[in-house]
Amino acid sequence: MDRQLTNLTRFSLFFPEQRQFFIENSDLFQSFGFRQIRPFFSRRIGLDNGNIIPILGGARLSGKPNKNWRIGVLDMQTAKTVVNDKDVFAQNYFVTAVQRNVFERSNISMIFVNRQQMDTTGVSATNFNRVVGLDYNLATADNHWTGKFFFHHSLSNKNNNDAYTHASWLRFANENWSIHWNHEYVNKNYNAETGFTPRIFQTNQQTGETNRLTYWRIEPIITYNYFPKKGKINKVSYNLYGDYYCNDKYTTTDNLAQASTTLLFRNSSTFYIGVQNHYTKLLFPTDVSFSGQNQLLNAGQYLYTDASLNFKTNQRKTFIVGGTVTYGSYFVGNKLSYSTELSYRWQPYGIFTLSYTHDEILLPYLNKKVSLDLIGPKMELSFSKKLFLTTFFQYNSQVDNFNINARLQYRFKPMSDFFIVYSDNYYATNLEKKNRAVVAKFVYWFNL
Fold it and tell me: Which of 93-97, 239-243, 434-438 has the lowest mean pLDDT?
């Protein structure tokens, strides 16, 4: 069950895996790459542009032959089906990962991902996609240096030249200083169909054509931490952050420069203030209100600035309040965004949460101000040590959707569960039903 988000970017958002089969021991498969460069993303299995594809079955094996090695193998088979009056052929997804500990706390990992279509000819000789990758995770004994370095290459039936990505992340940290360096490079021919690389895709909203574009990313961070010896403040963090993108011609396409201060109080409450300067180069006319407007902002270069405040009250209390406010210029106009979350712990029975997000976008070329709202109450109840209920409602004006999700879980043995999941989606404007589903799921844990 996904919690919806308001998307004010030109790229797809990442939603974590929710299916229990893929979550268990998923760190071995999902840890490859970076947040926006994932060679394997299990939510690609059983979904096609948001449409559910039947999964016939699958198997996963993972474990540690000894203290220095970890291995994992995953194989899933989907069924042939019809989506929007088009045939979707059966697919086989195979993933294997191997990890070897080196030095005191570091490791080297390898991954192989294969998607293979099964069509009228049997195993297709041309419709496949593969990714081979090597990752090195660094952690020194004193924990002052941590980092990650990787190189991945994709293989398909065409465009295999320069179809690779590489990246590096290195951090030095001690009690007072934290210094990060990150670089990413993704070639437009890199094609991880069972992965997640949203940044290489940019859509021309006038033509509907999606373009694959090479990019570089440079992301430095410098943080200084100060610890007052007296008073209510436990730590003060001063932070400088940069997020720079350019294309294969080294022309800047996006840049974010940020300065911020965070206060951590001794009672665990927090307060944040930050100023952000943005540069965006729109390659195509774009609806930067992200509300489905027909009037588009012209392609070009835009510079704008905003400021943010964020707070969260004592997290050890039964009632917790958090909120964020951001205001400033936005392309050729202005934008105000604010959100709040109220959480109440009814110990030991449950947690009740109410979240609200609001965005107001004022652009002079539009006839009216654009307002986007996202409301999401949630309830988590524990009737006993074995019976649990999770329910939430969501209203999302950006996608005109109101939905209800409920999951009843009965844990009859450790790691063995029976689920009943109910999901209902409506158009928010008239409450006309979009879809409805009731799913029963049985999970039994075999420990050999």
Answer: 434-438
